Every structure is written in structure tokens, then in C-alpha cells.
Amino acid sequence: MMEVPIKLFAMLQEQLGPEVVISLPDSVTPSLIKTAMATVYPTAKASIDTARVAINQTFAVENQRYRLTAHDEVAIIPPVSGG
Amino acid sequence: MLWRVKGWVLKMYYLQISKSPLEIDALYQRLKAPQYGGIVTFIGTVRQWTGPIETKFIEYSAYQSMAKSQLNKLADPIEAKGARVVIAHRLGKLQLTDEAVFVGVAAAHRGDAFKWCEYLIDQLKAEVPIWKKETDTDKIRWGN
Question: Which residues of chain B neighbour A81 with C-beta distances below 8 Å?
């Protein structure tokens, strides 16, 4: 397990702040990250459920496993609404 | 003008995400060049009414570094086809009628310019981490 900073945006940032640190296994999938987040922050579950995960500023692919290191930038991306 | 050299290809596209008001004419001027015969621009503005919902103002925020990277990924293949891309998105608090986004494509012919401009705004709205927080007369809404 490792302590991983998670960047937050939009309504999640308003609710929980710009960044939280959660405990994750070294090897993760996007849904595992979201489940871990929702377990630690159950009040934000609805927003986390609809979000995507980005690793190093690229959308992570569902069902793909990622081996995280201390240098990786992980973010939860709520449904985007620019334009 | 932002110049990016990648291998032998000189990138001409201009991408901007900032709190400054969009300077529409300056953005348009970046698209003009002798090799292009068609320029299509899309400008998204803050709308007052969405059905029965009345909007007072909108605040835009972004994951700026990723948004820039996503825009790069969108612009690259269009420019590889010989067109020029200019995209600007405004952040912060915008009032009714303010310009929120500018997407412009210059191409040799209008067909490509129309097609790629629509493609870019559609992709921006789906894949670029920018969010709007809408303050409406009844409540606050995130997103659409």
C-alpha cells in the first residue's frame, strides 16, 4: 500500500479541497481508485461515481492496471462541461 | 503565436486557457494565411435561458495542465492534415453574452474547415477538463 495524493476539481474540490491523500495498492485500476475514494469520503460518492480518473494528465483506461509510483499525478475528473 | 517544433513538422496552432476576456479579432487574425481559403470559427457565449432555467452567471474552472495537454492532442492531427487550429477558453466568472470559448480552423477549403471546427468543439466539450458552475435564479448547477 502507498499514500497517494489525489487531485480534485469542480464540485469535488468544493466539497473536499484541491487534494486529498488516500491509501492505495501499488497496482490499481480506475474503478479501484474511485471505490477507495468513495469509501474514505462517502458523502462525495455520487460525484465520484460519475467521474473519470486521470493518471499523469491522461484519462486512465477502465479495466487497465496501472502501477503507481511516488511521481505519478492522479486526479479525479468529474464530467467535463467546458465550451 | 505559439510555435512548437516536433520532428520536421512546425506546429502553428495556438491554444489558450486563461481568465482574460477572449480577444476575438486577434484570435481570428491568427488563422489567416495565404494557403487557406476557408476559415470557420465557433464562439460559445453565456446563455440566459435553458428551457425554463434562467442563468445569472457562470464560473469556469479547469485542470489547466491536463486541459492544455488534451487540447494539444486534439489539435495535432488536424494540423497534420494541413489546417491551422486556434482554441481559446476563458476561465473565471463570466456574465451573460460573454464569450467562453473560441474554436477556429483555417483550411484550404470550407468543407474541411467546417468539419474540423465542429469536431474540435465537440471533442473539447467531452474530453477537456474544464468545468462550468452555473448560478441560476433557482439554484447552482455544475455542468449542463
Answer: 125, 130-132, 142-144
